Amino acid sequence: MKARVTVTLKSGILDPQGKAIEGALKSLGVDGVASVRQGKVFDIEIAGSDKAKAEATLKDAADKLLANTVIENYAIEVKG
Amino acid sequence: MKSAILVFPGINRERDMARALKLASGQEAAMVWHAETALPRGTDLVVVPGGFSYGDYLRCGAIAARAPVMDAVRDFAAGGGLVLGVCNGFQILCEAGLLPGVLMRNARLKFICHDVHLRVERSDTPFTRGYNAGQVIRVPVAHGEGNYEADEETLKRLEGEGRVLYRYCSAAGVVDEESNINGAAQSIAGIVSERGNVLGMMPHPENHVEDIMGCTDGRGLFAGLVAHLEKAA
Fold it and tell me: Between residues 31 and 70 of chain B, which touch chain A (CB distance below 8 Å)?
C-alpha cells in the first residue's frame, strides 16, 4: 500500500526557512503569496493490505521518528 | 574522572573532546560506538560530542537519538550520572527527550562559526563550578541549528528553576539581541535537566582549553567536573 506522512510546523513556531522562501517568491514577482510555511513529506510503502494496521504503523513511525511533536504536527494518509 | 564519549557516524568533534578531557582529568576517555548497549563499567561522565551525526538527515540529532546506546545513556542519567552534550550532542539530547525543547534553524539562516561570549549564570552546579556566577567566557560556536526554542511553560520553568547555565552575551556580559547569535529564546546557550545532571550547550568549550588555541576559557567547565567528581568520591 502506498501511504504519505506529511509533517508541518505547529502554528506559532517560527519558521525562518518558510520566511526566506516567502521572500524569494516575492522577489521573483510571484504575486498573491500571503505567507509560506515549509514542511516535509514522506512517501512510504507499507507491506500487506490491512488499512487499519497500516495507519497504526505510520502513527508509530511518526511519533517515534518522523516528527518531533514538540514543534511539529503530522498527518497520515493511506492511499490503498 | 572516567569519561565515555559516544561516537555516531558523522560526529567529528570526539577527538577534540577526548583531548580536553585528558587535559583536565589525566585519564583517557573511552570511545563508545553507537551500536553498543552498555557504557563502560565505572563511567563518571558521558559526553555526546559535536558534529553532524547521520548527516543531519531528517532533523539534527534525530536519528542518533534513537541509537541503541542511548537507552544506556537514559538509564545512566536516570541514576543521576553526569551527561554533557555539546552542539550536535545538545541536539541529540533534546531529540532523545533527556532535555526539553528543540534546536531550530538559526534565526538569520546562516551557519555561524566564530567565537562568542557566554555569561555563566550560576556557579553551584557540576557544569559551572569552575567559574564564578556572572563570569563571561569566550568559546567558539559552529552550528546552523542552534536556535533554542521551547514552549512558554517550559521556558518559564527553566528560568524559575535556574536551569539556564550559559547565555549568549556581549564581551561585557550584557545579554542583548545583538549578542544572541542564533535567535535562541532568552539567549539560551546551555541548559540542564530537571535533576541538574544533564547539560546541553551549543558552544564548544573543548576548543578553548590550550594556549595554542588562543584562549583557555573552556577549561573551567572540565576542571569543574573533575573537582565535582573528586569531591563526590
Answer: 58-59, 62-63, 66
- The helix (H) or strand (E) run that includes residue A32 is none
Q: Identify residue A16 by its one-letter amino acid code.
A: P
With CB atoms and an 8 Å threshold, state whether A14 touches B107.
yes
- Using alpha carbons, select from B144, B140, B164 the residue that is nearest to residue B59: B144
Helix (H) or strand (E) holding B90: helix B88-95
> Is the Cα torsion angle A11, A12, A14, A18 positive or negative in sign?
positive
Residue A12's pLDDT is 85
Q: In this structure, what DSSP letter does residue B15 have? A: H
Whole-structure pTM value: 0.94
Instruction: Tell me if residue B204 is catalytic.
Output: yes
B208 part of the active site:
no
Helix (H) / strand (E) containing B22: helix B14-25
pLDDT in tens, B62-121: 999 999 999 999 999 999 999 999 999 999 999 999 999 999 999 998 999 999 999 999
Do the chains contact at B58 and A66, CB–CB below 8 Å? yes
Cβ of A64 within 8 Å of Cβ of B66? The answer is yes
> Searching chain A, which residue's CA lies closest to the CA of residue B106?
A16
What is the crossing angle of helices B14-25 and B219-232, to 10°?
Answer: 50
How many pairs of residues across A and B have Cβ atoms under 8 Å apart?
35
B170/B195 Cα distance (integer angstroms): 29
Domains defined for chain A, CATH in brackets: 2-79 (3.30.1280.10)
Query: How does pLDDT run across B171-211, given as a tens digit for each residue?
Result: 999 999 999 999 999 999 999 999 999 999 999 999 999 99
| Residues composing chain B | 233
The x, y and z cell numbers of residue B80, run together, are 543521576
Helix, strand or coil for residue B2? coil
The maximal CA–CA distance of chain B, rounded, in angstroms, is 45
Task: Tell me if residue B113 is catalytic.
Answer: no
